[in-house]
Write a structure and sequence with these properties.
The chain is about 30% helix and about 25% strand. It has about 160 residues and is α+β, with helices and mostly antiparallel strands. It has two domains: about 10-65, Arc Repressor Mutant, subunit A, CATH 1.10.10; about 80-159, no CATH class.
């Protein structure tokens, strides 16, 4: 594990999101954390924090805070929790084979997280580390029967 050096600006961003108990954020929220920084400096800071292992770049403009004690090379947040941030403002639920996995109804592991969304998301698949997130569109009329289910002692997701 490489050393994670935290600069003054890095500390401000990490503190801002830690106080809000927020693990994932986009570029616009980062601008609120450092309102006096210009765009290019903030982009460089986020890129530098990613290189130093403080942040994980999920997709363009979306970052996940890596816990300090975790190794940045091997760290991957819970896939089901990451789905909420990937869909942004679309209604969604974890479906199909991914839902079966949460209920322990599959016999083989799946490396695809299937997310049913209420509006089309492009691209329809995104690869984060080695995990494929697949967005399956259903119109509002066929979007029903969602339920929040606990996936561990602290977090719940829509299924």
């Amino acid at each position: 594990m490489k050393n994670k050096y935290i600069s003054k600006q890095s500390n401000e961003i990490l503190t801002f999101f830690n106080e809000q108990d927020r693990h994932c954020f986009d570029y616009e929220l980062a601008k609120k954390a450092l309102p006096k920084s210009n765009d290019s400096a903030l982009r460089e800071l986020l890129s530098d924090m990613t290189r130093r292992g403080l942040l994980m770049r999920v997709k363009r403009g979306l970052y996940y805070v890596i816990p300090y004690e975790q190794d940045a090379e091997t760290f991957m947040p819970d896939w089901h929790l990451l789905a909420e941030y990937l869909v942004q403002d679309a209604k969604y639920y974890i479906g199909y084979y991914s839902a079966l996995q949460v209920h322990n109804l599959i016999t083989q592991p799946s490396l695809i997280e299937q997310i049913v969304v209420s509006k089309q998301i492009r691209p329809s698949t995104i690869k984060v580390k080695e995990i494929l997130f697949q967005f399956i569109y259903h119109n509002e009329k066929h979007f029903f029967g969602t339920k929040k289910i606990w996936i561990d002692n602290f977090n719940s997701c829509l299924f």
